[in-house]
Structures are given as C-alpha cells and as structure tokens.
Design a protein that fits this description.
The chain has about 280 residues and is mostly beta strands. It is built from one helix and 13 strands.
Length: about 280
C-alpha cells in the first residue's frame, strides 16, 4: 500500500503555514503500482509552545484517502484527500480548550518525467486545493487555496533524498484582518527530506522546509521549519516520535540580522504518534 500520508501538527494555530498543511511531512509519496484505493489513519500527540511561549498539549487525528489508476491510454493519475481534526488543551489554563476540523485538502496529479528517470525513484506533478472552512482560516478571512506541486525521490547510497516544491495562491476576503494580521496571497515552499533506513522496520528522518510568503502589499517574509523523527513500522501499523522547530524567521525585523536556527529554543515541539495504512 502506498505511503502517502502527511504527519500532523497545529501549524495553522501558530500562523506559519504556507498552505494550511502540516509542517511535519512524509515525502515518500508513491505514484507507481496497480490500481487501488488506499486509506491512512493517524493519531498524533504533541507538546508545543504557543505564540505566548506557554506549553500546549495538542492532539490531532488524520484520515487520508487515495485512489490511483491507469487509463486505457496508459495515462497514470492519482487522487488524494486529507482530513484533520485538531484538539488543543493549554496547561496554563485547563479550561481553555479548542477543537476544530482543519481545512480539507484535495490533490490530483500524475507521474511526470521532468528530470532524468534513470537516477530518480519517482517524480510527480499535482494540483492541490483547500477550502478555508476551519476556525483558523475564518479568523484570517481565508476562502480557499490552489497550489501546483512537483516532487521527486532520489536514492543515494544508504539513504533517500526527497524534495517537493509548491507554489500556492491563497484567496482572502480581506487583505488585513481586524486584528491586524496581514494576509499573503502568494506562497512558495521548498521541502527537503532525508530518510535513512536501519534494518527492515526502523527509519530515521530529517526534514527542512523553507517558506516564502508575499503579502498584498508586496512585502516578502520567509522562514524555515525543521523536523527530526524516528519511526518503527510493524506489519499493519507504525509508531513514531520526533522534534519539530516551527517557523524560524531567517531575517530579523530590520532585514539585516540573520536568525537562522535549525532548532528554535523558543518554540520547539515534541510529538509521538501511531498510524495505520489500509
């Protein structure tokens, strides 16, 4: 069964997501094989720090559905969708509790040959769409998103390098929200991941994401996120644990001071989770 899932975090609540997807990622999407339906279910628990620096317990459940087929004219395609439910409980105030369905994500794509096939394991081009229906999106007056995504895998010696690039057009009803949040209609993401297998069941993964956002006023703002994870796979399910650093700005507000950090001591997030692929 295909590994097409995206590991989860409360990225929208921290205000750093470029598309409304999770910053935790799995780039080993496969678009090869026979026609089939697929489903992935995950339960994720993390200990985070919010914008105020307070520790927050957060749990997320995710259901991913996929369908892959090859038409009579040998044209391969795949359809995927992702549905998340987030629940957040503050340790500072046990009465403060938030639960919400995240924006659903729909994806349609096909294998392509944009780069040399003799060195790549797989490559695909897809279109992603998201509906701004969550509380986080309503807060910033977001209506929808449309994105173009290209990804590939490159086996190198004892590990695999995976990458995707995505350009997103976000649609809002307001350029600036009532609380002063500045919306970004254009966003670019470059995501890189190294996957190191240890034996048949254990893998160690490290991911680096770069996000560049452009506001309605033409102002550019960028940042990085990093994710370090260990995963153990059983026959029908898997367990994982890791550390994520979300949304570290690469420049200070004055545009001159370099603030690049691969682990942000101000807002780290540790997580554990289990999942199953059907």
């Amino acid at each position: 069964m295909q590994n097409f899932f995206v590991l989860t975090s409360i990225f929208l609540f921290l205000g750093t997501s470029a598309f409304g997807q999770s910053s935790r990622l799995q780039l080993t999407d496969s678009v090869e094989g026979a026609s089939n339906f697929g489903a992935t279910i995950e339960l994720d628990y993390s200990l985070q720090k919010n914008e105020a620096g307070n520790e927050v317990n957060a749990s997320t459940s995710m259901i991913g559905l996929s369908y892959e087929d090859q038409l009579e004219n040998d044209f391969d395609y795949f359809l995927r969708s992702y549905f998340y439910f987030d629940q957040e409980l503050s340790q500072i105030d046990q009465g403060e509790k938030r639960a919400d369905f995240r924006d659903p994500i729909f994806e349609a794509g096909t294998p392509v040959s944009l780069l040399p096939e003799n060195i790549l394991k797989s490559q695909s081009l897809s279109v992603q769409a998201s509906l701004g229906s969550s509380a986080a999106s309503r807060l910033i007056d977001k209506k929808a998103s449309l994105a173009l995504k290209f990804q590939y895998q490159l086996p190198i010696s004892f590990f695999t390098f995976a990458q995707y690039q995505r350009i997103t057009r976000n649609f809002f009803s307001k350029e600036i929200t009532e609380d002063g949040n500045i919306n970004n209609p254009w966003a670019y993401r470059l995501a890189n991941q190294i996957i190191v297998p240890i034996g048949k069941s254990l893998t160690i993964e490290a991911a680096l994401l770069y996000d560049l956002n452009r506001s309605f006023q033409g102002v550019l703002k960028d940042g990085i996120s990093t994710d370090y994870k260990i995963k153990y796979s059983f026959e029908d399910f898997y367990a994982y644990a890791g550390l994520i650093s979300v949304g570290v700005q690469t420049k200070a507000a004055d545009g001159s001071t370099n603030q690049l950090r691969f682990i942000d001591e101000k807002a780290p997030s540790s997580y554990v989770g289990i999942g199953s692929i059907f």
